[in-house]
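Predict structure. Chain length: 231.
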Amino acid sequence: MRIAILMTNTDESDFAHRWPRDGEKFPAMMWRVRPDWAFVVYPVKDGVFPDTLEGIDGVMITGSPASVNSGAEWVARLEALVREIIAAGIPLFGACFGHQVIATALGGKVGANPGGWVFGQVEAEFTDGRKMPIYSSHSEQVVQLPEGAEVIATGPGCAVAGFVVGDGVMTTQYHPEMEPEFVAALIEELADELGPEITARARATLSTAPDMADTAEWIAQFLEQNKRPAR
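Prediction complete.
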C-alpha cells in the first residue's frame, strides 16, 4: 500500500520542532501493524499538494491547530482535493482537523465545542458497542454532518467523534498518532491556554495509555478493504 499523508499541522513553534512532525507520526503509527507500507507526505498547509492521485492507494489527513473555518486558501484547496479523492474512489481517513475538513468539504459544519477544550485521553464509544481509548486535543467539532454521513462514534462532549460516508471515508475527531510522552508534554505546553481545570483533568487521564497498535489496525483494515482495484 502506498499512502498519501496530507499534513495540515501549522504549528511551527519551538515546542513543535522538538518532536516528530505529523508526517513522521502517522507512518510510525501505521508501521506498528503494516511495516511494509510506503508513505508520501504532502505539507498542504504550506501549499504543497499532490500533482496526481495515480499510484495512491489511500489518503490520511492529519490534525492541526488551524481552524477549518479560517478562510485560508489552502483549506479551501484541501476541501476541493477531498472531493476529488472521494470521486476517484480512493479510501480517505481523517483525524481531528482531517475529520473536520472532510465534513466541511462535503457540506457539513464545524463549530466551537460547547464545553470548551477536550484534552487528554478519552474513550470513544462506537455504535457497534466497541470502546477505544484515544487522545483528544480539540476546541472545535463537527456540529452538522454532511449529507450521507453516518456517525460511528461519540465521545465526551462530542456527539460526532467519528463518521463514515459510504465505504470510502472514515474519520475520528481524535488523535490516534499521538504518543503518551508527547501528550504529557503538550498539556504542560498549553497549560496557560487550557486553564487550571482542563489542565488538571487532562493530566489525570495519563495514568494509562491507549493501545496504538489496536487503533492503527482499525485504520489499516479500513484502507485495505476499500483499496481501489488495480487498473
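Summary: The chain has a mean pLDDT of 97.
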